[in-house]
Amino acid sequence: DTGVSQDPRHKITKRGQNVTFRCDPISEHNRLYWYRQTLGQGPEFLTYFQNEAQLEKSRLLSDRFSAERPKGSFSTLEIQRTEQGDSAMYLCASSSGQVGQFFGPGTRLTVL
Amino acid sequence: DAKTTQPPSMDCAEGRAANLPCNHSTISGNEYVYWYRQIHSQGPQYIIHGLKNNETNEMASLIITEDRKSSTLILPHATLRDTAVYYCIVRVYGGSQGNLIFGKGTKLSVKP
Fold it and tell me: Could you give the dihedral angle defined by the CA atoms of residues A17, A103, B30 and B35, in that order, rounded to the nearest 10 degrees?
């Protein structure tokens, strides 16, 4: 399968713990995006990379959130000191700048 | 905020055409209309995009009005597997701006 993959698919953590998610984009795509989706809402943009450069960050990306894309390949999204309000589906997408963005299956985070 | 307006829900009989409307009255000259859909518990899936001409691919057809203020996504022969939330999004094609701005979309229910 050559689509976007995300790991883990599900994560349950206790409030205050740190979590890290991984996204592997489609190999030839130089753009990578992170979104967050809560129940009943459309996805909300978090951040965007072109190659290894982080070009945009949403106001939703608080200081507790950090994203990296070393060497312009896979990306990680870390949430420090998780809060119950962080519970959501975290979606990763990639594109080549043409056509549309291709989304992964998402990581569902539950903060207890 | 999303630049598009869609009905919150629609029903369609299996085998019939599903016509999903979208209003985007403030669309700019260099903005394209994109359609995505999200099947329950999956990441969004790109369907089609267009600027001003009607477009067709293996999944759907996109009809854009001459003034570009509205469009219709057509699924010619809806199946039960087309039940999903459909999002209409306007954005610059391949632009430096990374993110897609999702609204709440239209929940399409295809019924037997």
Answer: -120
